[in-house]
Specification:
The protein has about 500 residues and is of the alpha/beta class. Helices cover about 20% and strands about 30% of the residues. Strand 15 (about 200-205), helix 4 and strand 16 (about 240) form a beta-alpha-beta unit.
Length: about 500
């Protein structure tokens, strides 16, 4: 019997009818049944007369399937075996737990260290392979990118493939009812490669940066596209849905976005992470189809420091997917320093949220990581592995409180007495105080006389942890008087 591991992707393919327009004239569906679940999924046409069905099992054991559709002459049946997880990178899909936190399906905490490469899959193969190599050596475990090609400054070349075929009657125009399988097979390949690396693929379904008409399709064509994409990619365990990048720069209103969000989540039997990303105005993240807040800063000076405010407001995880990029281009969103981006990551993390990176350094060939991928030139990405290590050392794996097993959280955005921004994370007897751009030369602590605490001084930029010994009672800890320091207190 054919075998597949839990949370793997099981694929079936069948030859079927191809006359007319197979993308709108025919359908294919399947029901997968095991001892613990029964799921009906939509299939899709993949060109050359072939229809495919993809399924992600969430349990072990024997499964049976039944396939039907008007593209087939008769129903198909079969069975396969789902084995326990074998690969070290397979922890299942990412889920929301305790309302505000993220974890894999196997309960391993997911400390998101994201990055943005909007158009990397639309570049030549050699550049895409270079991007994968860079990702394999990094600490990134999520990457945002577009299914549609992107047209914007520093990104004005034609993509390698297009998502639709050209109309036969009008040269230069696309037929928005006829997908280009070559484009989507290429995307299949790169999502599989990301799966091997343990990296979440945050798929941006729509965006405004377009000169081909993809952002202005009719409602019917939008819905055809969304159903096709969810049928094709929902069975990948590492897929997230981003309804749009900078949705508020497009002509669709909030009601339309809500309608599209409900369509995608209803078409996804696995309930992947799903959100929508803003430019100038935050969407109503309280909408029932939204699992988390995918946010871009809307104010020059106040953003990540409000993470805990937005968590309380929406009672959902907050993911700052865009908090400006490290770089030196002439746009304000793309020229902050590596130090500032790392500071923002630490602020977000210690306030209970998650952050995303991007890099926009001027390049002689206009190969900017934020759009094209390639290699990284900045300083911030080197520090994220250190941050992830600290996060993973947090007892329970979470940087804020949950229900039952977590203790009180104390988050203080401004300490007036010491004139330093700081955050406190408290898990019973575990705390981290981060001082950001503050530069205290010492801090005083008053511990109970009958309790001992181990104190570490963490240099978040130079990536060092200095053991300051065991203390009780009144304690003064000397600090180096420079930025980006933190203090960790652990009760013995």
């Amino acid at each position: 019997m054919e075998c597949i591991e839990k949370w793997g992707m099981y694929e079936l393919s069948f030859a079927g009818r191809s006359e007319g327009n197979p993308y709108i004239d025919y359908y294919i569906k399947a029901e997968f049944s095991g001892d613990n679940e029964k799921i009906v999924v939509d299939g899709f046409y993949d060109g050359d007369g072939i229809y495919r069905i993809r399924f992600m099992p969430s349990y072990t054991g024997e499964y049976s399937y039944r396939v039907w559709g008007n593209c087939l002459d008769d129903e198909k049946e079969g069975s396969f075996l789902v084995t326990p997880v074998k690969s070290s990178s397979n922890h299942g899909p990412v889920r929301v737990i305790y309302e505000n936190f993220l974890a894999y399906e196997d309960d391993l905490p997911y400390n998101s260290i994201g990055t943005t490469c909007y158009a990397w899959v639309h570049q030549p193969d050699e550049l895409c392979d270079l991007t994968l190599d860079t990702l394999s050596k990094s600490s990134f475990n999520k990457i945002r990118f577009c299914i549609f090609p992107k047209f914007y400054k520093y990104n004005e070349k034609e993509p390698v493939t297009y998502p639709y075929v050209r109309k036969r009657s009008a040269e230069g125009d696309f037929d928005f009812t006829w997908f280009n399988p070559e484009h989507f097979r290429r995307l299949d390949y790169y999502i599989v490669e990301l799966t091997k690396l343990g990296i979440e693929a945050d798929l941006i379904l729509m965006h405004p940066y377009d000169r081909w008409g993809f952002s202005e399709m009719s409602k019917e064509c939008d819905e055809l596209y969304l159903r096709y994409v969810t049928a094709r990619y929902a069975a990948f365990r590492n897929v997230w849905w981003s309804m749009a990048n900078e949705y508020d720069l497009m002509s669709k209103g909030d009601d339309r976005w809500n309608e599209y969000g409900r369509l995608v989540t209803a078409s996804d039997p696995y309930h992947h992470m799903c959100s929508i990303h803003n430019c100038l105005r935050y969407f109503d993240y309280g909408s029932e189809w939204i699992t988390h807040c995918s946010m871009q800063r809307t104010d020059l000076y106040s953003h990540v420091e409000l993470t805990d405010k937005y968590i309380k407001m929406y009672n959902k995880p907050v993911v700052w997917d865009e908090i400006s990029y490290e770089g030196n281009i002439d746009s304000g969103w793309g020229n902050i320093s590596g130090q500032e981006l790392v500071r923002r990551f630490w602020e977000v993390s210690l306030r209970g949220g998650y952050a995303g990176h991007g890099e926009t350094y001027v390049h002689p060939d206009d190969i900017l990581w934020w759009s094209h991928g390639g290699v990284l030139h900045g300083d911030s990405f080197l520090r994220f592995a250190f941050l992830k290590k600290i996060l993973c050392e947090t007892p329970g794996g979470y940087i804020k409180c949950g229900q039952g097993i977590f203790d009180e959280v104390v988050g203080i955005p401004y300490d007036e007495e010491n004139e330093a921004t700081w955050s406190t994370v408290k898990y019973c007897s575990y705390e981290i105080h981060y001082y950001g751009f503050g530069r205290p030369s010492f801090r005083d602590y008053n511990f109970p006389e009958d309790e001992e605490y181990r104190i570490d001084v963490i240099d978040t930029w130079n990536m060092t942890v200095t053991d300051m010994g065991i203390h009780h009672g009144h304690t003064r800890i000397s600090l180096p008087g420079r930025e980006y320091m933190a203090v960790r207190l652990v009760r013995i």
